[in-house]
Structure formats: C-alpha cells, structure tokens
Amino acid sequence: MNAEIEIQLIASVVAAACALPGVFLVLRRMALMSDAISHAILVGIVLAFFVTKNIASPFLIIAAAFTGVITVVLVELLNRTRLVKEDAAIGLVFPVLFSIGVILIARYAGNVHLDTDAVLLGELAFAPFNRIVISGYDLGPQALYVMSAVLLVNILFIALFYKELKLATFDSGLAAALGFSPVFIHYTLMSLVSITTVGAFEAVGSILVVALMIAPPATAYLLTDSLMWMLGLSVSIGVISGISGYWLARFMDASIAGCMATMTGIFFILGLLFAPERGMVALARRHARNRWEFALWTLAVHLFNHENLPESATENRVDHLHEHVGWDREYAQKVLTHAKQRDIVEQENGRLYLTRTGRQMAKRALVK
Amino acid sequence: MNLMQILKGLMFDYTLRTVALGSGILGIVSGALGVYAVLRKQSLLGDAMSHAALPGIAIAFILTGSKAPLVLILGAAAAGWVGTLFIMAVLNKTRIKDDSALGIVLSVFFGFGLVLLTFIQKMPKATQAGLDNFLFGQAATLMERDVIIMGLLGAAVLIIMMVFWKEFKLLSFDSEFGSSLGFPIKKLDFILTGLLVVAIVLGLQTVGVVLMSAMIVAPAASARQWTDKLGLMVALSAVFGALAGMSGAIISSVTAHLPTGPTIVLCISFVVAVSMTLAPNRGLLWRWFRERRNNRRLRLEAVLLDLGMLAEQHEDLSHGHPASVLNTMSMGQGGVERSLEELERRGLVQNINEDEWALTQGGVKEINRILEHREVKKV
User: Same domain, yes or no, for A193 and A297?
Assistant: First the structure.
C-alpha cells in the first residue's frame, strides 16, 4: 500500500467514526459538546504525555477520553449551580481547559511533536510514517488501526443499543419510564464522543473534528427523516468529504484536515440548496408553484361567482381582472395564458368563460 | 520581574505600555458587549464568529498583500458577518438547531481559514509570518497604530451601544414586547450583532480566534453574579474584562513561551471563579452559609416547638422532659442535644436535671412569636 492510499483510508475511517456519534449529537442538540470535548481533551493528552513520556502510549487515549467525560460533568455541575445558563457554562469550561493545555505545551513540551499547529491541524500527512511493525513485518500505519478500532466500537455500540438510543433521543421521558436510563445513554454517548475525538485528534486536529462530527450528520438531517438512513448518509458524506478533501489538499498544496473540513461545509451547502424536500431550491419552487396554483384558483372562483349573471359581461373580462383581483396587467395576462394552457378558461372577444374543468376547480376551491 | 519593575515598565516601556493599553481596550469592549450575548443566550455565537473570522483575515491578506491591521480587521469582520448571516439563514430555513448551525460555521470556516493559511505559507515570497498569531494571539506584536485603531473602533462601538441603550435593553429582556411597541427589533438585532462582531474582531490579534469567545462570555458571566442591574453589569463586565486582559497580556509579554490568549483566558476564568464563589447573594459560599443558617434555625425551631407541645400537657412549665423523647419526635433529624444546648444559651429552655429539659418563660414567648410569624406568612 502506498502512502497516498493509506492517507485516504485513514481519512475515510476517521470521517466514518466521527459521523456515527455525530448523528446523535445533532439530534440531541448537543453539537457543541463535541467542540467543548475536542478542546478540553488537550489537557488530558498533555498531562498523560508528561507521565508516560511516550506520545504513542495508549494511556494517552484513556486519559484524554477521561478528560472529555470530566468536561461534560463540569459543564453539568456549572449548569446545576444555576449561576449561568447552559450555553455560557460550555463557553466557560472548555476555554479554561484548552488554555491550560496550550500553555503546558508552549512551556514544557516545545520540542516534541506536540506543538500547537498539530493540536489545531493534526498531521494526517505524517500518519503513514508512524507504522506498526511486528517482528519485521510492516502491518500498516498505526492511526489506521486506532481509528478502525474506534469505528468498530462506535458501530457495536449503536448496533447493540440502537433501540435505546433512538428512544432516549426522541423521547427521553418515555425511555426513562420504560426503564432505560437516559443518564446512562448520555454518558456512554459522551464517552464515545471523547474516544472518537481523541482518536481523530492526531489525524485532523481539535477543531476539525467538530466539522467531521457535525456537518455530515446535519447534511444528512436535511435529506432524510429516518434514523437508519441518517446514519448511513452521514457516514457516506463524511467519507466522500474525506477523500475529496484529500485531493483538494493535493491540488492546492494545503492542509489536508482543513480541506476535509471545507469539503464537509461544501456538501452541507449543497444539501442546504438542493435537498429534495427541504432544500432552499425545492422550497422556492414549491412556493412559486403554490403561488401559481393560488392565482389560478382565484381566477376560477372569480369567474364562477359572476357566471351567468347580468354583470358577467363587465366582470368577466381580461381588462377587469386587475381592478377586481388586484393583479397588474402583465401578471393577469400571465395567469390567463397559464389558465388557458391548463384548459381552465376560454376567451372570446375579451370575455372569459370557464370550461368544465375550470368550473369544477372553482367548486372544489369553494367547498374547501 | 517584580511588581515595581512592571509598574515602571508600564510608564516608560513602549511595548509594555502598548500591550497593556491594547488589551485593556479589548477587555472593555468585549466585556461590555458580552453582557448582551450572555443575557440573550448567545454565548456561543461569539465562538462561532471568532472562528469564522479566520478565513476573512487570510483572504484580506491574499487580496491586498498587506498586513495592516485595518485591512485584516475589515476582512475578519466581513467573514464574521458572513458566518453569522449563514447561521441565521440555516436557522430560518431549515429544521437544523442552533447548536449544529454554530458548530458547522465554527469548524468549517476555521478549517477553510487553515487551508488558506497553509496555502499562503507556500505562496512564493509571501511573508505570512504574523498571520499565525491570530490563532492564539500574540500581545507582544501590538503596535501603537494597532492600539489607536482599537481605541477608535472600540469607542465607536461603545457610543453606539449607549445611543441604543434603551432599545438594546428591551431587545435583551423582552423583544416581543419591544416589537409590539413598534421597535424595529430585527434591525436592532442586526446592529447589536454587528457590534458584537466588531468587539470580537478587535481582540483577535491579542487573544486569537480560538479563545476570543471566552472574552465575550467570562466577564459578563462574572458581572452577572454581582448585580441584577443592566447598567452596573455592563460597567462591571467592562472592568473585569479590562483587568483580566491587561494582567494576562502583561504576564504573557514579560514571560517567554507564554501565548497571550490562553494566559488572558486563565486570568478571566479566575475572576469567574472568584465571582461565582464570593459574590453576595448569588455566590456559592454565600448560598452555602445561608442554607446552613436556615437549616440550623429550622432545627432549633423544630426542637423548641416539640418541647412546647410536650409542655402543653403539663400545668407546671418547669416539668422536665427527657431529650430522648424530643429525639424521637424529631424523626431522626439528629442534633437534638446540640440544638437544646444552643437554645439554653439563648435562655429559651432550661436543663432541669441530667437529661431533662423544660421551657422558660422566654421560650414560651418565642414559640408564640414563631407561630404568629408562620400564621402571618400563611395568610
């Protein structure tokens, strides 16, 4: 395997592993917890590094994941004092922890590869250099194994607790009443987010983890109503963002992680614009269609009201529409053309007559 | 460096004076504007805005090739604005909630900014050195012209805030009432958000995009603990922001390997911790004392009333009642002995012998007073 393919593989696995817990963060309105956790775990990594003196030690991952959970607990404790609102609580906790982490790095760890750039950006390009070699056999990059393990844990958790997660997410009251502890689900999910963040941290850095966790699920949320589909779509969008991000970075000679985040944003914007039901284009088209439909109904009802009455000779004329219905001449003409196409009215010497379809339409509209 | 040296430096050292002034200004502006963000539950909007500013800085540099602060500030403000408008659009047009919208803007804009920064790094002959400072801030790079610009922009922001004082107050506390009174709430929201963008952008060079949000949230959250009045809160928040900004920036510029942003954040977080513990009425320590006092008072009253009920069954007021009975009546509340001793010290009960207790005349009066008080409260 060459380095190019390995990087893309790692990017895909990272993106998939992030997207899975991300779906539940988005649905449970806790997206910013990932922001808090991804910043805060830096302290855990640095402190564990000081203890073990080994950047590759698995102890680092455990310590960082633990810090992530502590962050969640701290936010909740602060929240419970009722001295600040929840958003402020998040905004107070993670800057402190992150600051401590950055200062520790700047002062004491300057010469290891734990520098602040690595913290923010990750070093995906270097990931293939760090390999697992057992008795002379090269088994591949370590990051690939770590992230695959994280991905597997995420898949297992979601598969095993799918029903519970779904219930706790959409109706936590019912979940509690049925005996599934929402607290248990909450903390397990937060632990997963922490573990995933730590694993992805090395590859994509602390802030871009947030992009991979939130943007693909949010895009999927625009596309579907089914949780199953949302999970699948999120993973797919994440993986596609990862691979296309890699090629964008190659093309621009820029940061891979940054490009991956940019791609997740581009896919989100595409979803925002072109999602079949909820996209802005679909919304605008539906809006326009409704407007035409409404104009046709208005025309039909107007003609129907005056049909076969003495005043119909003056009322049911083209040039009268703008006076009575309040349309300007141009618009009235457009509606009329449209109505003729749809076989709703017929025109004879400037007078308008409803066809049979037109009359039925007017009656239906009036009954409604 | 000791304190005297720093004080001397503040007066005569150009760098130190500039840094202190600049960080002070940023603290005042972000502290004052942060109050509105915190009251309107938009604490994390600042986080998204400051991250979103990064690509603006990079684009401004790519387009103009200049590192003049005004150019970069304009770029940052424009990008921060775009990010905010994007968030508003997503919230208005889709069912995506604010947390996800903030998270996406924050991380994607920032990622794009990093792409541009790495891209600039590799541009031929580009001197991008210095743009990195926008990540964690570098107070020592502040120059006099930067501080002048910060001062002017900051003053403009504060003046606009004063001009719209009443309107912003209404917007923060009851915007629906405001709009029913005919205030253009949407436009006011627009202006206030714009001011917040400027406040954030002012701090980027000193604190950095990653941690600037703390300068919005923390001073206001501290000030909130000390007062319920908006005017006082804004003033206090500005003072806290200025203090933390100045001390953090000075500490970091006189110490090697100490990035400014994180240092300032630790300073302001210290202020938050002190405020949340010590502030009268709301502070945790205060609350703890109040709860303890209340609990003790209630325990004393309960024992006294129990003894009163026992005394009612005897003509003789000085008839002794064993503490064990009172203990049973307290239903396992415990601490009955201690309460009796305290009551004795206050002259409300007397120890008849060894372990038996009786009310005094004063105790009877006290019971009547308590019952009357409770009766009044009930009514």
Answer: no
What span, in angstroms and rounded, lies between the C-alpha atoms of A265 and B114?
14
Predicted confidence (pLDDT) per residue in A141-186, tens digit: 888 888 899 999 999 999 999 988 898 888 888 888 888 888 888 8
Structure-block tokens of residue B49: 């805005």
Q: What is the CATH number of the domain that holds A304?
A: 1.10.10.10
Domain boundary among the residues A253, A277, A301 is at A277
Q: Report pLDDT digits (tens) over B198-240.
A: 999 888 888 888 889 899 999 999 999 999 999 999 999 999 9
| Residue in A34, A110, A208 closest to B111 by CB | A208
A247 and A177 in a single domain? The answer is yes
Could you tell me if A207 and A293 lie in one domain?
no
Q: How many domains does chain A have?
A: 2
* Selection from B140, B282, B262, B145 nearest residue B207 by Cα: B262
- With 0-12 / 13-18 / 19 or more C-beta atoms within 10 angstroms meaning exposed / middle / buried, residue A52 is middle
Top-level CATH class of B286-378? mainly alpha
Q: How many CB atoms lie within 10 A of CB A296?
A: 21
Say if the Cβ atoms of A257 and B104 lie within 8 Å: no
Q: What is the pLDDT of residues A91-128, one digit of tens each?
A: 899 999 999 988 888 887 655 555 666 667 677 777 77
8 A C-beta contact, residue A175 and residue A164: yes
Contact B110 A214 (CB under 8 A): no
Residues of chain B contacting residue A213, judged by C-beta atoms under 8 Å apart: 103
Residues of chain B with pLDDT under 70: 1-2, 6, 9-12, 124-130, 332, 377-379
Q: Where are the domains of chain B?
A: 3-262, 286-378
Query: Residue with structure tokens 């923390």?
Result: B218
Q: What is the CA radius of gyration of chain A?
A: 30
Question: ∠ CA(A44), CA(A169), CA(A175), 5° rounding?
Answer: 110
Is there a single domain that holds both residue A259 and residue A299?
A: no
Which candidate from A106, A121, A218 shows the least CB-CB separation from B114?
A: A121
- The CATH number of B3-262, from 2.60.40.2230, 1.10.3470.10, 2.60.40.10, 3.90.930.12, is 1.10.3470.10
Q: Which of B100, B136, B265 sits opposite A31 (nearest CB)?
A: B100
Note whether A293 and A268 are same-domain residues. no
Residue A159, classified by CB atoms within 10 Å of its CB into exposed (0-12), middle (13-18) or buried (19+), is exposed
* Structure-block tokens of residue B228: 């319920």
Say if residue A2 is exposed, middle or buried (CB neighbours under 10 Å; 0-12, 13-18, 19+). exposed
DSSP, collapsed to helix, strand or coil, labels residue A343 as coil
Token pair listed for A17: 């592993």
Q: At what angle do helices A3-27 and A227-252 cross, to 10 degrees?
A: 140
